[in-house]
Amino acid sequence: MNGLTAFGQDPVWLVIVKAVLVFVFLVVLTLFNIWYERRLVARMQHRVGPNVNGPFGLLQSLADGVKLALKEDIIPKAADRVVFLVAPVLAVIPAFLTFAVIPFGPVVDVPFTDISTPLQLTDMPVAVLYILAIASIGIYGIVLGGWASGSTYPLLGGLRSSAQMISYEVAMGLALVGVFIYAGSMSTSEIVAAQERLWFGLILIPSFVMYVIAMVGETNRAPFDLPEAEGELVGGFHTEYSSLKFALFFLAEYINMATVSAVATTLFLGGWRAPWPLSLWEGANEGYWPFLWFLIKVIGFISLFVWLRGTLPRLRYDQFMNFGWKVLIPAGLAWIVAIAVIRMISLEGGFDRRWLLAAGAVLAVMLVLMLFLGGDDEDEVAPAEPEPFDAFAGGYPVPPLPGQTLSATSAARTGAETTSQSAEETH
To answer: Where exactly are the transmembrane stretches of this chain (predicted)?
Structure first.
């Protein structure tokens, strides 16, 4: 059985076993990712990190989960109770559902039976569109959680998150079009099969770069963690959540990290196929070995998430949105046109594929230059001299905003009040 014909043949008990295994895999991977992130960031900052609970501190995440479950569950008086309770569930369930079409390996023999089955729960002709559709539902959980809290800061965090995730989903979708064109399918298993000779991450470098940027923005991770910016939003959309409801939001974030990493592995790095030179071994892509290669690639992307968090500062929100709409999406549209032309000419036999790598490298360089050298229009205009600010115009002192200067009268009056206060404290 090859391709989509391999699916839909499993008995019901095997489908249930597969679903349970996927669920357990995601929960265990989340516990590992939390520990791994804390240990890796600690190593970057010359700290120790969790090392007490369990060997090497591996049970620290489990201890934190138990602690969260035993915490007092508080619901604000101003909250919409039903929506407040449903929102975390609406965020975490789509995170699990997206893994239904992720291929973990090829067709294998089930132990103690004579049944052969793919290491994948299911597949469909539009599996990648299914992933994008299910992932977009998770936005509702975050938006409704911020709105239902009945508080200003969670509402602002929810609005930020909705704008951010919608914007970068567009760029993510554009980055995947090139994969569809070259694979000739939207089925995840067939896309992996199309990368038997060469990974799409190598021949579609701009698509790969755009997807990696978009997946970080899509998951609200640093340096794009603006919906949770504690500097101005306290904690963002989950400020009013506690106990298990907060744990569900936390779980959804880490499963989404694993999801976008698994999608990147499947669409750009050959999925479960062994990397070169391991692929020279005949048994590298047979049996249960492919699951190991898949897991290593996913952990590599998660390491990228951790590295970005420990390295880059948070962007300003307007810079982040400008980059998504004015750089990433136009570059994605231009690259799709280039891919379509290149693919058409190459299929007709009149085009050398080495030009594809050259075009991809040039577009990647242009994307980087647009990111780092493109200045705002505001920077080209000479800033006007700020007018003096009267701090006592309303009858009581008001601190100046950034860029404002106190008038001479206000400065003198402020200095006099400071001197009199110091004298009173001395006496």
So the answer is: 12-36, 82-104, 124-145, 166-186, 198-217, 246-268, 288-308, 320-342, 354-373
